Amino acid sequence: MTMMTMMIDDSDDDDDDDDGTGNGSDDDSDDDSDDGSELTDRQIIKFMFREGLKLGINVFEFVDVEFLKVEFQAELSKHYSIEIAAVGELDQFLVVDYLYGGFVSEEIDYQFYRQAYATQLEAAFSVEVETLTDLQILEHAYTVGLTEGLALSPIDYEGCLKDFGQEIADYFKLDLKEIGNLDRTQVKFFILEVASEFNLDISQYVDLEYFRRESGNSVIENYRVEQVYSLDYEQTFEFVSAQVGVNTSPLIDLEWYRTEYPEDLAANQAELDADGNGEIDDSELYDALTGEFLEQGNETSPLYNFEEYFNSDEIKGDVATYYNVESFDQLTHAQKLAYMFGQGLLEGNDPFSEEFLAEHPELEFETFLQVNSAALVQFSGVQSIEEVSFTEVYDYQAVNGLLNPGSDAMI
To answer: Which residues contact 29 (CB under 8 A, 6 or more apart)?
Structure first.
């Protein structure tokens, strides 16, 4: 008996090729029928646990939750990191979220939900919102959020898919009916990075004020610009992109990496091609660059070079001390990169590689300070050029796009 036949009372009449996972072998896009006779298992489940709940349908009339808790207690225990004995206490929505596709957990932004509905959450659970677990947030999203139409994320995926479906299909080389198969990372990438190429106004689909208001500190950390409310929409979009999986930061240069490390990409083609379209898409490459490839010691941009920067025992010792570890070798490459463009700038160290400066000598910090002194003084909000630090020089170059591929670095 499959998970689907346990769920739908009349499912014995189904003829589709279910794989036993609750997600039949047909995908969401294979159905052109208007009468519902050819709906796939996944389409039915998605309707029940999203639209059905919004319509007030008691979907649990069709689900034996207690049976599922027993049958899949090991999987539920592992997924939610709880003891086997605690599986019996799991909310019914959490059980079906994991076993039948995770439609809400795929979309919810827990930080956004906490911030946006703090009052409702505290009233529901009688504790401060900061103490709530993601499991409690997910439970609330199902039991209250869906029925009351609360936004699960600061990005309106469904609205974008509905209004810009053809453009999305064209970009990902899909039929229009197949765009429902795209995962949220791909949709985010289109919204934040690609839509402008189609001249689409997507500001209505992104809660920019949320990112400005609640992520101010992160914006400052990302750009190291103190006047966060002076950031324009373009800069905010760039920050949002970094937060959700695609980064316009000069430290991530996708095209340069494709040229610099073609062997790595070829060797890892199957692993990196998550959507199986035969190509390593930008969003897939970004994930690898900020994960496994970075930790291999591969640079992610021509701006810097690990070996050149950490070429002395003195600098290695400084970094180890900064991170409070015994040895430089204990550090991850992500930590090293963060130091180079964070504390290292505060220490007055120029992070750029010799190759980059050979091609862009005008961006060497001391040179840039002298040539652009008036602009830097104004940007930094100080009285004289002597007060401008390397941190502010880099801020200025990054925020003004001077470090991005193809930009005109000369002012």
So the answer is: 175, 177, 178, 179, 180, 181
